[in-house]
Predict the structure.
Amino acid sequence: MTQPPPAHDAPALRATESVVRDVIAGRASFEAGLDAVLAYQRAHNAPLADWWARRGFDGDASDWRAIPGVPTDVFRHVRLVSSEAPTTRVYRTSGTTHGARGAHHRISTACYDAGAIVHFARCLVDHAPFERLVALTFDPSDAPDSSLAHMVGLFADTWTPSATTYHLTPSDVDVASAIDALRSTTAPTCVFGTAFAFVHLLDALDGDIALPAGSTIVETGGFKGRSRVVERDALYADLVARLGVPRSHVLSEYSMTELSSQLYAASLIDHVASTPGDPHRLIAPPWCRVVAADPTTLAPLPDGERGLLRFVDLANVDSVVAIQTSDLGLVRDGAVWLEGRAPGATPRGCSLAIEEIVARLEDAP
Amino acid sequence: MTTDAPPLQLLPDGDVTRDLTPDDIVAACDGLRDRSRQLAGLSTVKIADGLGRVAAAWLEDADRWLVPTARDTAAVTGYTPEMVEWALRDLLRRLTPRALVALVENELGDREPFQQPRSRAGVPGARGAVPARLTLEVLAGTVPAVAIEAIALSLLARSPLLLKTSRREPVVARRFVHAIRELAPELAPFVSVVTWDGGDVALERAACEAADVVVAWGGDEAIDAISQQCRFPTRFFGYGHRVSFGVIDRGTAAHERMSLHDVAHGLALDVAAYDQRGCMSPHCVFVARSAPWSMDAIAQKIVDEALPQVAETLPRGTLEPDVGAAFMQAIGVAEFDGRAHHNAFGAVIMHTETRFVPSPGGRLIHLVPFETPDEVFAALRPLRDAISTVGLITTPAERGTWLSGLSALGARRFTRPGRMQRPLWLRDHDGRPRIGDRVEWVSVEPS
């Protein structure tokens, strides 16, 4: 995996990253990290600072829930990154049903990397260590603009540096090699992939596979823009039945290109602790907080109310700390229940659907 | 927002509170058809008087009829009660006996065209209207007042009506029928109101096979699905997805005597009505680069003054999450390059290219510049035949260019800003007559 060059010429960023890394390591509070990141972004990200000012936000960190979140679509049109040093990475969204791809520019991924490893360990590796990683994702060297490939490569480098295989090609999922890898493994294995890739894998699988005890499956979503959508619970039931992994060991992962942190289902943690829990409950890392926002006003909603999820992610040190998504869900006691993406404004009655209008406009010669 | 419990089904043989079966639909249709001759025997004046009596009672005894209906409809649709009340009042005020009679005369050429074939001066022979024995009308639930229109139009066309409401908005039709039962009982036997989940093929087929005329409102896919249940010679009329927009041409102010205030407040009302969910809600306004006012001036006037003022009487309802999400994303993108004006009452986004820009709804309108009408026509070409209403202000000299160009693209209604959501009662809808489609004619040639 190609590591980006260190941000030697960005002393303020390094200092801020140091604070955030302390938060990730449990040596500093979320509030201390937030203070540092807000101050850094106000000083070094002029478009963001201007936008905050227009929204009446002066950088006050006393209520993290009140920080205006930059809508994810903005990343399709505006370069939002610290100007302190040159960009070393650009992660791009995998594409939507239409329009430009979002781009998350980065000077440094130091906090992304540190946080991803710590939280994946906390949610999975500490409870189900694996010796082999079968990734239904791109090899990171083939997809330098994929944050998912970067993350999986990070896990491979950390836990299975010589026992990782990648099975996604530019044209499709290489299901034959993935099935071979799964049939041949004899040690606990982690299978990591998008929902779309798992659907293809199961479609191509002749018979069932019994993965070695202790194996895990991590599903990362990813039906956007695809024609075939399978309900997540149905997919998980198929994975359990056909790959021989208990339901507790099948985890959802939630993240997006515009974030640096990931959320994982708590099913494995609950299983190990022998506490029955909702397998759909997602756990955010302590350096990433989530609030559901009122769809009309974007005001923070009380615990348990359904709204549009907004993330305050300290690991986005050099870009945008608060991200407003179109994903619907609710937050209760810090855990998140995701209900899916709010589609483009859908038709209610006789007004033409925005998606349909866009499709007509884009299809026009 | 939907109600999960089965709604009260108003059937010819009595009301029930349960989900319906195809047998229920067949029985209801049979019952209504059996009454078709009885309805055909009522005069236009009698029907108009009955409907007018009910409409007047809703307005005069509003605390009993209009206000609770608006409140309960708001609770299930997400509109504010003020919005529903405004929409219902706007329609009910027009349901006077005189206006209803005029509608029949205007569309059918005679006050009592159903009684017997009549001769007209200069036309040999005679002609008489034949009502449909049963009309099925399927509503979308977006615009609550359409339920009342459907009942009035079907009765005026002398056709018993099976009115299918959406689960999203089951209230208005039922309340209006309750009022008819109490205040104009002579009309009550001819209307049934039912609800089932859209896409229930067995129920839709049963109803479509029994009806002579089927009218359906809603999304194109839903309308397609219903049309497929109709067999020849059933007549089917679908009112599907449409979009609307405004045009502010150059040099208009003096000719139209519209000030910036008038334009901004008119557009704000058009956008605010039904929270921009209807087919007559403008998505964008094409503004001539040489218009009397800059886009920035129009945007500021709408956002800073007109939308807040409209919200005093028509507060915005809650946005569905998908609308809220799309609204938030659009504003966010435009804000970063200084093209957005917005506040808690709505938003205006200014553009630099001449293209049709859709709005997610929720009181967000786009301003799009243009040099010539041909640029606008080119931008609209992909939406050919999906255009409803144009809020047009132009000069007399340019009016013909706009009317012919936009009509060729499928636009079927032209009005001015401020009237886009309030079509004249005596005019067609989406290019179709309101009553004329529902009847057939018998011709008696000279012997």
Summary: The domain at 1-365 of chain A is CATH 3.40.50.12780 (Rossmann fold). Chain A touches chain B at residues 47, 51, 54, 70-74, 76-78, 294-298, 306-308, 324, 326, 328, 342-354, 356-358, 360-361, 363-364 (CB under 8 Å). Residues 223-229, 345-351 of chain A have pLDDT under 50 and may be disordered.
